[in-house]
């Protein structure tokens, strides 16, 4: 997966930017992020547009372990994410 990373600081309300992409995902939640990642994994050009300076929502704020409940119910891209974090720390999964 070849991802290009660009950051455009917030524009003055009188300014606008045009970016040509296949998919535009809006929001800073894990759902918006994963939608953008999956689209990129499938070869689409993607813009992730966020409305705050904090990307990732509660999952990025350290509350992931307290909100899991049944670990067996988590799968797909989310499970892959937790396994990749685990690999970084030398464990199977890190919540």
Could you please describe the fold and organization of this structure?
With 95 residues, this protein is α+β, with helices and mostly antiparallel strands. The protein contains 2 helices and 2 strands; from the N terminus they run E-H-E-H. A two-stranded parallel ribbon has the order 1-2. Helix 1 (30-41) links the parallel strand 1 (23-26) and strand 2. The model has no long low-confidence stretch (mean pLDDT 80).
Summarize the structure.
Helices cover 27% and strands 8% of the residues.
Layout of secondary structure:
Elements: E1 23-26, H1 30-41, E2 46-49, H2 76-89
Please tell me the overall pLDDT. 80
DSSP, total strands: 2
What is the 3D form?
elongated
Specify the helix fraction band.
Answer: 25-40%
How large a portion of the residues is in β-strands, by DSSP E?
A: 5-15%
Number of helices: 2
Radius of gyration over C-alpha positions, nearest whole angstrom: 16 Å
Distance between the first and last residues' Cα: 24 Å
Low-confidence stretches: none
Q: Largest sheet at a glance? A: 2 strands, parallel
Helix/strand-derived category reads alpha+beta
> What pattern of helices and strands is seen along the backbone?
EHEH
Strand order in space, largest sheet = 1-2
């Amino acid at each position: 997966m070849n991802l290009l990373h660009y950051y455009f600081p917030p524009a003055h309300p009188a300014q606008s930017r045009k970016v040509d992409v296949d998919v535009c995902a809006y929001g800073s939640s894990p759902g918006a992020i994963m939608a953008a990642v999956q689209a990129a994994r499938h070869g689409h050009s993607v813009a992730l547009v966020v409305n705050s300076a904090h990307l990732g929502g509660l999952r990025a704020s350290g509350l992931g372990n307290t909100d899991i409940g049944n670990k067996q119910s988590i799968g797909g891209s989310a499970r892959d994410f937790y396994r990749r974090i685990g690999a970084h720390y030398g464990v199977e999964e890190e919540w």
